[in-house]
Structures are given as C-alpha cells and as structure tokens.
Specification:
The protein is mostly beta strands and 59 residues long. The chain has one helix at 55-58, and strands spanning 5-13, 16-21, 24-29, 41-45, 48-53. Strands 3-2-1-4-5 form a 5-stranded antiparallel beta sheet.
C-alpha cells in the first residue's frame, strides 16, 4: 500500500514544485507530471508528485 499526501502546487521551477500541504510548504520533484501549473493539486509520495488530482479529492 502506498501512503500519499494531497498538496496544492504554489510554484514550479526546473522540474521541482513548491507545494502547500495543510500549511506545511516543501519542495518536491514534479518531473512525472507534464502539465502541472500553480494552483493544481497533486498526490505526493516520497517527495515526488505521482498524480494530478482535483480539488475535491484533495480535501
């Protein structure tokens, strides 16, 4: 089983994303997601964005 955390993308730079997960900001790899933009939500596992999700699933 995979444990993932939903987070909102607040910035992107050089294949990395700054995300906000319930107020905690951290930098993660965004190289697996092609069309990621600030404001999108992602599922994060082991410091990597593994899937883009909608806002409803994120909450």
């Amino acid at each position: 089983m995979c444990v993932g955390l939903a987070a909102k993308v607040v910035g992107l730079k050089d294949g990395m994303a700054l995300v906000d997960a319930s107020g905690a900001k951290r930098e993660i790899s965004a190289e697996l997601i092609d069309d990621l933009e600030p404001g999108d939500y992602v599922m994060v596992h082991a410091g990597i964005a593994i899937a883009k999700i909608d806002e409803e699933k994120a909450s």
